[in-house]
Design goal:
Blueprint: H1 3-31, H2 34-55, H3 63-89, H4 94-102, H5 104-111, H6 121-139, H7 147-169, H8 175-197, H9 205-233, H10 236-242, H11 246-257, H12 264-281, H13 294-301
Helix pairs in contact: 1-3, 1-4, 1-9, 1-11, 2-8, 2-9, 3-7, 3-8, 4-6, 4-11, 4-12, 5-6, 5-7, 6-12, 7-13
Length: 308
């Protein structure tokens, strides 16, 4: 793609694709049980990502690195999406879920202390402000349920712990092979949970199929490829700023497409959450060392590909 066109079209395309994942997820769990949706998504996307990695001649991990890759994948895919999709089923809005997921860089920064990285006072402040924003958005829900926010927290912890785990144990893994393995290993776990739930009824086959096509091709494939292209061309800090817009864009899309209300407290929560994310992201990044290359730094600083 022409560099000038990519500069103009790339960022809004990434924001729209990433935000649309929450809308497609809510449509999917409205048509079928959450674990059945996840099983279908992971299974189809996993096969396509494996095919892509093979065609691209990606380097596959082995031994202990392979085992660590699978653990990271289960945390970042199965735990995160299992919790978020179930929260969607509990009627948590797309705006709230996207705002909670958007706090992952803040939580990752806090967990980074276990990797020998310091957490600044500004980052702690950002964490508190971001949490206040989530609280405002949650309180504004018409059908408040303790289970919904709890599931969101579990999803956030799965993503954040998985990201830190990946940086700690598989910093140099080929992202094409890593993403394919992350998604594929999660499919049988989602399938087992679907079987345990005993509910395979698809209430609306057309909506289920449509959401699945979108989640697999646009979210799991398109957004992943676009994000990696951006990371190859631009520095991580520049790319990370695009994610600040996602909760607000998601809220507007949910209002327009699936008629989820956009109330004053939700808008206030989105604004406060954005301030928290900006505060937490403003820190001086350490210079990469041979043991911690720039590719590894990306894993800690950015939300991971194929998690939308």
């Amino acid at each position: 793609m022409d560099n000038r066109l990519f500069e103009v079209a790339g960022p809004p395309a990434l924001i729209l694709m990433w935000s649309s994942a929450f809308i497609a997820g809510i449509i999917g769990v409205g048509a079928a049980p959450p674990m059945l949706v996840l099983f279908a998504r992971f299974g189809i996307a996993g096969l396509l990502l494996i095919a892509y990695a093979l065609l691209a001649r990606a380097v596959w991990p082995r031994g202990k690195v392979l085992a660590h890759t699978l653990v990271a994948g289960l945390l970042m895919q199965m735990v995160q999406f299992g919790a978020f999709y179930t929260a969607m089923h509990e009627h948590v809005t797309a705006a709230v879920i996207s705002l909670v997921q958007g706090l992952s860089p803040v939580v990752i920064a806090v967990f980074a202390g276990g990797l020998g990285e310091s957490v600044s006072a500004r980052q702690w402040l950002g964490f508190g402000v971001g949490g206040l924003g989530v609280g405002l958005a949650v309180v504004d829900q018409s059908s408040f349920s303790l289970m919904g926010p709890l599931l969101c927290v579990i999803g956030l912890l799965g993503l954040s712990l998985g990201t830190v785990y990946q940086k700690r144990f598989t910093p140099a893994i080929d992202p094409r092979a890593g993403t394919a393995l992350h998604v594929t290993v999660s499919a049988p776990f989602a399938g087992a949970m679907a079987v345990a739930g005993g509910d395979f009824h698809i209430a609306d086959p057309a909506r289920f199929a449509g959401s699945m096509v979108w989640m697999v091709l646009v979210n799991s494939m398109g957004a992943f490829l676009l994000l990696n292209t951006m990371l190859q061309r631009w520095d991580t800090t520049r790319v990370s700023r695009f994610f600040f817009a996602i909760p607000a864009v998601t809220a507007v899309m949910a209002w327009l497409i699936i008629d989820q209300p956009l109330r004053p407290l939700t808008v206030a929560g989105l604004g406060v959450g954005l301030v928290g994310m900006v505060l937490a992201s403003r820190r001086t990044a350490p210079n990469p060392t041979p043991a911690e290359p720039e590719a590894a730094h990306r894993h800690l600083s950015m939300p991971q590909p194929a998690r939308v």
